[in-house]
Amino acid sequence: MNVIGIVAEYNPFHNGHRWHLEQAKRISGCTHAIVVMSGNFVQRGEPAIFDKWSRASAAIAAGADLVLEMPALSVVRSAQYFATGGIRLLERLGVISHISFGMESIDPNLPIIIEAIEDETVKQYIAERLKEGQPYAAAVANSIAARYNIDSQVLSSPNNILAIEYMRALQKYAPQIQPLPILRKGPGFHDTTLQGCFASASALRVAMQTYGSMNDQVKLAVPVFAQKLYQNLLQSGRGPVDLSCLENIILAKLRTINPELLTNLPDISEGLEHRFLASSQKSGNIEELLQLIKSKRYPKTRLQRILIQLLLGITKKQTDNFNTKGPLYARILAFNDHGRHIIKKIQHHNQVPVITKVSHYLTSKQRHQQSLTPLQEMLAIDITATDLYALSLSNPAWRRAGLDFLHSPVYFRP
């Protein structure tokens, strides 16, 4: 059994994702695929458009065999930490031979770029640019361009930045696993146009949030199973979700929180907490808040991640511990018959526990206790994420808490 690993968000799953899955298997020669997917919140600091079990089901229907949840402590971080968390979890499964990821362009200088980021001079350049207020991606691109004769445009897209971070993490944590970059098919990451069978996740989110339904252009860009799934979710008031759905909760937290607690958030620095607190008094919605704080030094995605860190109660101490220990469990969201066999192999390697039932590791009473193990503390944040995500849904029937204790992994029967 040859297994390829993929780190993804599938927000939402579309034809480009299916194409990548098919190509990854074909080129690598792997017969099976494991996906490590972000849960109910995504890396750019937003709630996912649909819940984690639904997005995982769409992936299984389209060719994945097992979908695992990436711990929230790794998701709501910059590209470097997001990629590292996904790679470390895949490595700990003990069954992965290849890891595949999409890129906007595959440059022959890619290995040089990976080495360049580890260059001490480049690291110094990056640190200086970050202090000047440049976003991480721009600081990396400009620093490498200044030191090496490499076009900074190679590093300009989010997919390419993530790909480079995946390869860095592979070198450090899983050198035995083969990287497999695949050229992205269809519109660019930020393209919001819907044309033909391929569209970006951004375009699909905009369309569904605008119309609240599946129009013909959206249907054309997603697999048949996903069409029916998304339509059902939309009709039942379980999506589409965006950050504005949680804006009252977030503004309430900002207006009532002790300022000292804000300084404990992972991405807060240099007095940024004061700007959040002051702006929350002047803002009537989340977009106004972000526009008041946003600057070249503090791009929108970083601010959004801070808001989700605040919402979930994530602290610098917790992320520092995660950086040291890495993911401590493999939590199953969805699987098929092939996935069942993979699970047995993972359990045989016994590097991380495989979680099918949350209460075997953390009960609803234990989650609020102070003396939790590192695994329990990590898992408690994922549970909090699900409980708060539920409050973003328009249908009150789906807003109840504790779903992580009740929802079993989805078994997909072909």
Descriptive notes:
The protein has 414 residues and is of the alpha/beta class. It has helices at residues 15-28, 52-61, 72-75, 79-93, 110-118, 120-132, 136-147, 158-173, 201-211, 216-220, 224-235, 247-256, 259-262, 272-282, 286-293, 300-312, 316-325, 337-349, 374-390, 403-406; strands spanning 3-8, 32-38, 41-42, 46-47, 66-70, 96-103, 178-183, 330-335, 354-355, 410-411. The protein is globular and about 55 Å long. The chain starts with a strand and ends with a strand. The mean pLDDT is 93.
Classification by helices and strands? alpha/beta
Query: End-to-end span in angstroms?
Result: 20 Å
Shape: globular
Which oligomeric state applies? single chain
Uncertain runs: none
Strand content: 5-15%
Rg calculated over all Cα atoms? 20 Å
Tally the helices.
20
Largest sheet entry: 8 strands, mixed
Number of strand segments: 10
Mean model confidence by pLDDT = 93
Order of helices and strands: EHEEEHEHHEHHHHEHHHHHHHHHEHEHHE
Helix content: 40-55%
